[in-house]
Amino acid sequence: MSKLLYIKTLGCAMNVRDSEHIIAELQDEYTLTQDISLADLILINTCSVREKPVHKLFSEIGAFVKEKKPNAKIGVCGCTASHLGDEIFKKAPYVDFVLGARNVSKISQAIKKPKFISIDINNDETTYDFNSYRSSPYKTYVNIMIGCDKKCTYCIVPQTRGDELSIPSQIILNEIKKAADGGAKEVFLLGQNVNNYGKRFSSSHEKINFSDLLKKISDINGIERIRFTSPHPLHMDDKFIDVFVNNEKICKSIHMPLQSGSTEILKAMKRGYTKEWYLNRAMKIRSLCKDVTISTDIIVAFPGESDKDFEDTLDVMREVRFEQIFSFKFSPRPLTVAANMKDKFIEESIASNRLTTLQDYGNEILDEIVLAQKDKTHKVYFDELRSGGKVAGRSFNNFLVEVDGSEELLGLTKDVLITNPKRMVLNGKVQ
Ligand code: 5AD
Ligand code: SF4
């Protein structure tokens, strides 16, 4: 009988994909379970981008230890594994192995050797063609690059995921073809800076950039929708915008991580663009693409952020009117440049006030956007059964839409008339 695997995934879409990779490697030996007390192997795929989840890791391991079967193994994977390394064994002796974010392909070795550790951020996984496992038959996540070269001054990712390397296009295209043959109509491309794809490969001599890759993917039979995250505003040149706007398979929603609206703060963050560049790109996309939705990430209270700098962020929100904002208080991360700007740290009460102001304003804008969806018709690709006889999916521009229905709708794209739009979900009727 096959053994049971419990896996908990925290953090970003890259981690979701890494967890799929781990499951794929183990699927001959293990089946997934949602019940920790039955599991033979317990994995936690961690995130270290902010401090809170790192603290939570050790209390979570403590909880696992209480619930687990006596012989069950515990492994810590992902960014916190890269960043804390063998400190994890010292703080949590029950942990059996530690596998960094760039080392997930070694999971089969890790489960066999006691106290196995692999956290090499130079490990090259780009040509590693692994077994497939997909958490959804309707869509597929595909990594197109690993690591990040940007070194934004607040960010720990370059230290946990290493330098940026693009995955050879043939591997990506084969993986998508396989998923499409299995019925997936949507592909979600992943990377820290997807629109910088093709800058560096570890061995191949390919001359291909992100726009070319998108074109090739859109030629694959069966693929109807292409999404990607995250592009970097710096690399949103006219060619990229042209492909985004005019390729009919590319979903018209784009994540444009702003981080700050102040050119001064952007400079201190080493983001490489100004407020004006960002606004110019966002407004160009809005003007060329009527129904586009734009989401963003914003950090408040970066060291040295003045009231005026914060006003600049609100100003960009006013102009762009984001459909979704992921907002965070600055969190100093070990070994980053910004963690050493202690003399410029912003008082906690000011940081909290700014976050509340930003979120309230973001919601005010969102409520107007959501209300305006009433009586509109969206093309929805249904991929999720929900409780209470509901089925959910995403509109082409990424609104979450729910209708009454059952399994028959899964995997289908239907016109849906929005009857009752709410902030978190637009309720509607299939036409
Ligand atoms: N503090 C707060 N937010 C951060 N992010 C990354 N590093 C930090 C940090 N040190 C946010 C950025 C990024 C998102 C994934 O997390 O907004 O885009
Ligand atoms: Fe971090 Fe900046 Fe790279 Fe994004 S682009 S992963 S924020 S260093």
UniProtKB/TrEMBL annotation:
SMART domains, sorted:
Elp3
- Tell me which Pfam families the record gives: Radical_SAM (PF04055), UPF0004 (PF00919)
Q: Which residues bind [4Fe-4S] cluster 2?
A: C148, C152, C155
Give the UniProt entry's GO cellular component terms. Answer: cytosol
Record's cofactor remark = Binds 2 [4Fe-4S] clusters. One cluster is coordinated with 3 cysteines and an exchangeable S-adenosyl-L-methionine.
Where does the record say this protein resides? Cytoplasm
List positions binding [4Fe-4S] cluster 1: C12, C47, C79
Keywords in alphabetical order: 4Fe-4S, Cytoplasm, Iron, Iron-sulfur, Metal-binding, S-adenosyl-L-methionine, Transferase, tRNA processing
Transmembrane regions: none
- Required co-factors: [4Fe-4S] cluster
**Main EC class of this protein?**
transferase
> Is Iron-sulfur one of the keywords?
yes
The record's annotation in CDD domains points to: Radical_SAM
Output the Gene Ontology terms for molecular function.
4 iron, 4 sulfur cluster binding; metal ion binding; tRNA-2-methylthio-N(6)-dimethylallyladenosine(37) synthase activity
Reactions this protein catalyses: N(6)-dimethylallyladenosine(37) in tRNA + (sulfur carrier)-SH + AH2 + 2 S-adenosyl-L-methionine = 2-methylsulfanyl-N(6)-dimethylallyladenosine(37) in tRNA + (sulfur carrier)-H + 5'-deoxyadenosine + L-methionine + A + S-adenosyl-L-homocysteine + 2 H(+)
| Gene3D superfamilies in UniProt | Methylthiotransferase, N-terminal domain, tm_1862 like domain
Q: What is its EC number?
A: 2.8.4.3
Family assignment from sequence similarity: Belongs to the methylthiotransferase family. MiaB subfamily.
- Give a short account of what the protein does: Catalyzes the methylthiolation of N6-(dimethylallyl)adenosine (i(6)A), leading to the formation of 2-methylthio-N6-(dimethylallyl)adenosine (ms(2)i(6)A) at position 37 in tRNAs that read codons beginning with uridine.
Which proteins does it associate with, and in what oligomeric form?
Monomer.
Protein name per UniProt: tRNA-2-methylthio-N(6)-dimethylallyladenosine synthase
**What is the species listed in this Swiss-Prot or TrEMBL entry?**
Campylobacter sputorum subsp. sputorum
